Amino acid sequence: MSRICELTGKGRQVGNNVSHANNKTKRTFLPNLQNVTLISDALAKSVRLRVSTHGLRSVEHVGGLDNWLLKTSDDDLSLRARRLKRDVRKASTEKTAA
């Protein structure tokens, strides 16, 4: 499983360990990924996603999973999140039409 946030697309970064003698060796910086259960109000169900803590704070700031998915472009989202976005958009249009 790749270490990429499903909502923000945040992945690993590459840098250097720098010793006191200024020797440089490669290292990776991994995002702080958590397995979380987020609740979709439009679908009335819970969804398990692998999200970075930064992404989780962003979702809460925007006002929930549904608002986050509708405001975010598809480029950053994973395949599962894009499918979820499609279902949320479909459910919200049906709710407004009824």
By helix and strand content, what is the structural category? alpha+beta
Rg estimate, integer Å: 17 Å
Biggest sheet strand order reads 1-2
The number of helical runs is 3
Query: What series of H and E elements makes up the topology?
Result: EEEEHHH
Low-confidence stretches: none
Whole-number mean pLDDT: 94
Tell me the number of strands: 4
| Shape, per Cα inertia axes | elongated
- Biggest sheet: strands, sense, closure? 2 strands, antiparallel
Distance linking N and C termini? 40 Å
The helix fraction, in percent, is 25-40%
What proportion strand? 25-35%
Keywords summarizing the entry:
98 residues, 4 strands, alpha+beta
Note down, in words, how this protein is organized.
The protein is α+β, with helices and mostly antiparallel strands and 98 residues long. It has three helices and four strands, in the order ββββααα. The strands form two sheets. A two-stranded antiparallel sheet has the order 1-2.
In short:
By secondary structure, the protein is an alpha+beta fold. It has 3 helices and 4 strands; from the N terminus they run E-E-E-E-H-H-H.
Task: Indicate the topology.
Blueprint: E1 13-18, E2 24-29, E3 33-40, E4 45-52, H1 53-62, H2 65-71, H3 79-97
